[in-house]
Amino acid sequence: MKHGIILFCLVLKGIILSGLSGAGQLYAQVPQLERVEPGFWWVGMKNPKLQLIVHGDKIASREVSLNYPGVKLAQVHKVENPNYLFLDLEIAPDAAAGTFPITFTQKGKKKLSYQYELKSRNNSRERITGVTNEDFVYLIMPDRFANGDKTNDVVKGMQETTLSRDSMYYRHGGDIQGIINKLDYLEELGVTALWLNPVLENDQPRTSYHGYANTENYKIDRRFGSNELYRQLGNELQKRDMKLIKDLVHNHIGSQHWIIKDLPSKDWVHQWPEYTKTSYKDQVLFDPYASEADKKQMMDGWFDSHMPDVDQDNPFVRNYITQSHIWWIEYAGLDGFRLDTYAYNNPEYMAEWGRAIKEEYPQFTFFGETWVHGVPNQVYFTQGKTVNQPLDTELQGVTDFQALWGINEALNGEWGWTNGVNKLYNTLAGDYQYQDATRNVVFLDNHDISRFYSVVGEDFNKFKSGIAWLLTTRGIPQLYYGTEILMKNHADPDGKVREDFKGGWEGDKENKFTAAGRTEQENEAFNYVKKLANYRKQNQVLQTGKLMQYVPEDAVYVYFRYNEEQTVMVVMNTAAEARKVNTSRFSERMAGFGKAHNIVTDEVLNTSDTLTVPAKTTLVLELKKQAD
After folding, report:
1. Are the C-beta atoms of residues 231 and 167 closer than 8 Å to each other?
2. Which positions ≥6 away from 461 have C-beta within 8 Å?
3. Cβ distance 564 to 587 under 8 Å?
4. Contacts 24+ apart (CB under 8 A), 523-526
5. Which of 85, 97, 299, 489 could share a disulfide with 496, CB 3.0–4.6 Å?
6. What is the DSSP letter of 255?
7. What are phi and psi of 441, to 5 degrees?
8. Which among 451, 515, 518, 439 has a CA at the least distance from the CA of 480?
9. pLDDT per residue over 45-86, tens digit each?
């Protein structure tokens, strides 16, 4: 996500927080026991430790007690703000599911109590399976996809109540129910996993639709639905053998987050004498000549004035974030996480976080947004200590911006020694630096960058070549909503690439979810994606098959995906003229094959001599024996 406000003198709703220490300190007025988070947990977790954050008026002045078999109150922590307590619980392996009171007592005052629940886990083998290169991910901005429940378009009491589909900055009303209503469409397209831009509550005063400034950690935004509806989405996907990916932001939260309004301690967020924005310079993290000042600004600077940058050196911050993520995996049966603004986080914490997730859910997967320039820069953030990192990051994969720029140059650039399709070839040749490049997420566009159809100048042949590459190259392919129907625009600003999917709202004049509502070319684009995506879904050769690529010649790039059962040949002609390709050069992979089935057109070709490839066209061919 493209995108902090100083806390030494931060005014929030008339409450001045000035350092949070010293005599005469003003604290937010809160109910006696406002909240306990997480509000419930589960028995049988691998990690027996649980830390509760308790918020209430001068709650630190009270004694805490509980009595439940198998649950031990190990320690009570007090912090600078007396409105907080942090409770360390230890839950024995044999503890039974049930409820018990946690009591807060103070002489001369009414006893406070919270009924805490430990639930039984759902250990179904179908849950929490991870997202891999066998999947095809579809990215949705929920506010802009489909409105399935008009009653939650505007929620009374929330700070932003403007609803206007004519504005790129206001909310449009899309929601989780709308997504559930369109699952048939996504299944038909060949999608196997959904990644939704963040759906946690963003009770910010303006531009809160994108979700990247959450004000709650355990609550779905009421304008999208409820926690239960989000879990229902996961269940509906599971019935279709589809998966759910949650978008997370470790680095920052919204300025209206409940915890910002009454900070537990001044080191909950990064403090600066005056507003300081991050430099966005990832290079300082691995530059052997970098200054400490540059490193600090990169990691501790704020992304934006309404997004306080959390201080992950604080152990209470770490626990609060990590436990909320584990809670959502267990609660909703998630399969994966996408980690926003990954490079801006504390590396030691992110490695610790990665280990905690993997230890609790060995099959679970996650990938980080590393919007950096250069393969080594990108590799640096991935797991395995592959390029002399000071620690193993535990990050399984990344959103592969280097491959994106490679395919863009391949389709738009002039043919040359390092230009044109040679850049794509060179990018993939750098995969030796990763522990496993097949865990990277490859994509053509997303919510932050210009839509692919516009990037290729609305050239339909180039568009199809990009789709062909996306669904046949190594890694986990991801499609941005609407790409399959040729949605277009440049990210100037990014709201232009976050338009509504026509047909997702009652009364829309056009319905692009149906063939009848699409133009002839939109249907051709949709069917092209559908044909390749479903072929990929049904044939492991394009999921886990090995990749062999050949040095491009005369603007033509040829690569193969193969396993013991199948071989697929991809021939990408990026030239403005047709090319004849002599197949004898590829005998290493083509020996024994004499025919090819064009996966898109179902045409059978003779491959024994030459292939004629039209201008700006990519052929996806399953090789066949002569006798087949």
Report:
1. no
2. 614, 615, 616, 617
3. no
4. 524/460, 525/460, 525/463, 525/464, 525/467, 525/484, 525/485, 525/486, 526/189, 526/484, 526/485
5. 489
6. T
7. -95, 120
8. 451
9. 999 999 999 999 999 999 999 999 999 999 999 999 999 999
